[in-house]
Specification:
The structure is a homodimer of 225-residue chains. Chain A has 225 residues and is an alpha/beta fold. Helix content of chain A is 42%, strand content 17%. Chain A has 8 helices and 10 strands. The structure holds a DNA duplex (24 and 24 nucleotides).
Chain lengths: 225, 225
Amino acid sequence: MDKSQTIVPFPTIRRLPGYLRLLRQCQAAGRTVISATHIAEELALESIQVRKDLGCTGMIGKPRVGFEIEPTIAAIESTLGWNCATQAFLFGAGHLGTALLGYDGFARSGLKIVAAFDSDPQLVGTTINGKQVLPLNRLHDLVRRMHIYVAVLAVPAVAAQQVAEQVVAAGIFGIWNFAPTMLALPDDVIVQNEDLSAGLALLTSRVSAGLKGRGIAAAALPSPA
Amino acid sequence: MDKSQTIVPFPTIRRLPGYLRLLRQCQAAGRTVISATHIAEELALESIQVRKDLGCTGMIGKPRVGFEIEPTIAAIESTLGWNCATQAFLFGAGHLGTALLGYDGFARSGLKIVAAFDSDPQLVGTTINGKQVLPLNRLHDLVRRMHIYVAVLAVPAVAAQQVAEQVVAAGIFGIWNFAPTMLALPDDVIVQNEDLSAGLALLTSRVSAGLKGRGIAAAALPSPA
DNA sequence: TAGATTGTTAATCGATTAACAATC
DNA sequence: TAGATTGTTAATCGATTAACAATC
């Protein structure tokens, strides 16, 4: 049965990179098979969930043994679209942008940032982590010539909407948005918001519960901005 | 009925910061009330979901009118624990760490990064965005003296486990982990993983579906690392 | 009043978890 | 063989969505 057409649930897609990372580590350590039980232990999940998730990639395990690491890696990469390099442009070469340019892990995630764009004339012409910083007026031409479909948006929130519009006008249809703003764009543009405040909200609400549990009073906020 | 004891669902907690941001914008624009319908439109959600979420904060809206913005902001902040400043130490003053140190938005999220730690002697003693970079040997003392409970971990993946152990040993029990590694720590330590690869996985799987839909073939990955 | 919006209660949907026969 | 692990099928759980009377 071909599962490649099956719809993979979003929560499963979010977990797959974690499996992939672990499997690669095990492979580097010389192992060839791994059980769902073992994966679950390492990642603090339930083994049945790991089996279900791996099932979504089309992998079939061997009872009593587990999953062969190499084909499982390939199956996960294929499911995520990480077997093909997605080339991307980065927008905004500030600290966050520089951090993203320097993150090697993207290569293993099928994302290749090939160049950066910035509106700051001081930055344009420089090279960051081996990638050129280009002026925005070259965007339109280069998107077409290099067949780029994905943009990583690391510009300040106030500039995000405007840059996003330029990017879409140039032909890009996938945006990984690090700016804390909702982008108003045509429906066929794929926007993945990477909203740090959502994660922070989970942390702080858990921590403040933890503080109460420990009988510690939190400091009052001096001046709410 | 006091809803402050009610358990707020995780998905709701994740959405609350988005409401908060919008409400503050509307407040800054001089508005005093807003309907769930309007919030839903702005954030691309369903109005019933907005009403349910705001209900979790204890807010009661007025039929035909909507929600008063000011008390709603207060209710959300209270639910998230953002009405009290959570002071935190940052670990790892590289590009990502610097980006996090410079992000003003945290102040509005009740998180105040008060200092950074780094193992690099070149960085120790410098000041980044007005925050001192300190050596790790001062950690233990300062955590106790300043009553710090939260750490933001922006160190390389290989160092994350070791730094996390030091941090926990010093008395911290909440960790916002930006390193792509599972931390093995005691159960009572709260770890919030900020895993970029999960978000990237959602983007790439949607994009590769989009590429197929548009009849575009993706470039094969030259050399899988 | 008429109509937009609310909170509540019930129905639906989707994901997680449990149970278990099959297997090497 | 005995026992660990698998995939499948069914049950549970939790969140989203729908329906609707109440309200200003």
